[in-house]
């Protein structure tokens, strides 16, 4: 009897399909010595270590998109008694995971397959203040897999292997950003068609109203409310003061004096900015088909981008989309109060929260 039971169990295990396992690793490599930040390049290798094909979104906040000069490396001086990091000089991007998934903007990796990317970091990081020395480079380790049903699944790379290199010589970054925005009595345009200029001229007052209304709401609500906690997490005085300071700065800026550049053609991206270049916003393809107001709107996009400017708050892109931002507010309110999409959704207030 026991023998029959054991045999049945063994046969069932043999007949059972292999359990699906989604996993990947990422490793950074590069030369041991680099003379001058203009020669600073590293390579990332992403490998599917699981037994299922990976369909990874080409997220600008991952190492899958070296064309975007985003902050996807954690860089610190090795053996330093205090944290010494270079200054970031790249871009902050409003990107849409849903548009990317719909458009199949994916990297496909079969089990065991790997892919390598070369990253030119010469324009992303400025080492003037950090100085010469040996630095550790660690890649961003979060990726998004899209399964057969369209569900998006967050994956952490393990292992995540860093590299070290010695940097010397000229340490100032070679930025490709515009040197400054030109401020005038009306909005300035670069590489924009007449129809694009018309859309921008409508979005500007919508953004100004969103920012002003958000500041007014914060001024009149100095305790916990559903609107605040939904996007920024539990109400505390420091979090309230920080968010209020951000919207004071955003509202105080005159959107109708900014420069808008329409040369970006990324279909799943709304816009991007160089945070230190105040008042210069690059608009991409997703912006033109967004509604004027409402969720992920043109007006809201301008608020999102304006929050990125260093002088306004230097917000980051920790999460994209309403669902992910609501989760972020509950799991990491410290990141939520510094997340650009969270600021946008608070300002758009759609659906309406009291």
Distance linking N and C termini? 67 Å
Sheet having the most strands: 5 strands, mixed
Q: From N to C, what is the helix and strand string? A: HEEEEEEEHEEEEEEEEEHHHEEEHHHHH
CATH topology of the largest domain: Collagenase (Catalytic Domain)
CATH homologous superfamily caption of the largest domain = Collagenase (Catalytic Domain)
Taking all Cα atoms into account, the compactness measure Rg is: 23 Å
The CATH first-level class of the largest domain comes to: Alpha Beta
Structural class comes to: alpha+beta
Strand content: 15-25%
Instruction: Report the count of strand segments.
Output: 19
Choose one word for the global shape: globular
What is the averaged pLDDT score? 93
Q: Into which percent range does the helicity of residues fall?
A: 25-40%
Walk me through the structure.
Residues 216-348 form the Lysine-specific metallo-endopeptidase domain. Keywords: Hydrolase, Metal-binding, Metalloprotease, Protease, Signal, Zinc. Residues 1-20 form the signal peptide. It comes from Botryobasidium botryosum (strain FD-172 SS1). With 354 residues, the chain is α+β, with helices and mostly antiparallel strands. It has helices at residues 2-15, 97-102, 194-220, 226-232, 237-252, 285-289, 298-308, 322-331, 333-336, 340-348; strands at residues 24-29, 33-35, 41-48, 54-57, 73-77, 87-88, 92-95, 106-109, 114-120, 125-126, 133-139, 142-146, 152-156, 160-161, 163-168, 188-190, 259-261, 269-273, 280-283. The strands form 6 sheets. Strands 7-18-19-17-16 form a 5-stranded mixed β-sheet. A hairpin with a 5-residue loop joins strand 12 and strand 13 (152-156). The N and C termini lie far apart (67 Å). The relative contact order is 0.14. The model is unreliable at 9-16 (pLDDT under 50).
């Amino acid at each position: 009897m026991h023998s029959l039971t054991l045999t049945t169990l063994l046969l069932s295990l043999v007949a059972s399909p292999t359990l699906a396992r989604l996993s990947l690793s990422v490793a950074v490599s590069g030369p041991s010595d680099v003379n001058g930040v203009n020669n600073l390049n590293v390579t990332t290798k992403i490998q599917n270590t699981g037994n299922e094909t990976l369909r990874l979104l080409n997220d600008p906040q991952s190492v899958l998109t070296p064309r975007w000069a985003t902050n996807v490396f954690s860089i610190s001086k090795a053996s330093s008694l205090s944290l010494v990091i270079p200054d970031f000089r790249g871009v902050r991007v409003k990107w849409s995971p849903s548009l990317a998934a719909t458009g199949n903007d994916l990297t496909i990796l079969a089990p065991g397959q790997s892919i390598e990317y070369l990253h030119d970091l010469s324009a992303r990081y400025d080492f003037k203040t950090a100085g010469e020395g040996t630095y550790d480079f660690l890649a961003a380790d979060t990726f998004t897999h899209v399964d057969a049903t369209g569900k998006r699944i967050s994956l952490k790379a393990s292992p995540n292997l860093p590299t070290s290199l010695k940097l010397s010589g000229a340490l100032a970054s070679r930025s490709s950003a515009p040197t400054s925005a030109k401020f005038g009595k009306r909005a300035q345009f670069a590489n924009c068609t007449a129809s694009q200029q018309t859309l921008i001229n409508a979005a500007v007052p919508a953004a100004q109203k969103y920012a002003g209304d958000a500041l007014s709401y914060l001024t009149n609500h100095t305790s916990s409310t559903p609107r605040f906690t939904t996007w920024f997490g539990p109400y505390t005085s420091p979090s309230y003061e920080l968010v209020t300071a951000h919207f004071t700065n955003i509202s105080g800026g005159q959107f109708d004096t900014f420069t808008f550049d329409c040369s970006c053609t990324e279909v799943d991206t709304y816009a991007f900015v160089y945070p230190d270049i105040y008042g210069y916003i690059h608009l991409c393809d997703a912006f033109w088909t967004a509604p004027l107001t409402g969720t992920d709107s043109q007006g809201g996009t301008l608020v999102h981008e304006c929050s990125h400017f260093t002088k306004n708050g230097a917000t980051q892109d920790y999460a994209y989309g309403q669902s992910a931002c609501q989760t972020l507010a509950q799991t990491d309110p410290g990141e939520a109060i510094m997340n650009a999409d969270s600021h946008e959704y608070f300002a758009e207030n759609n659906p309406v929260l009291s």
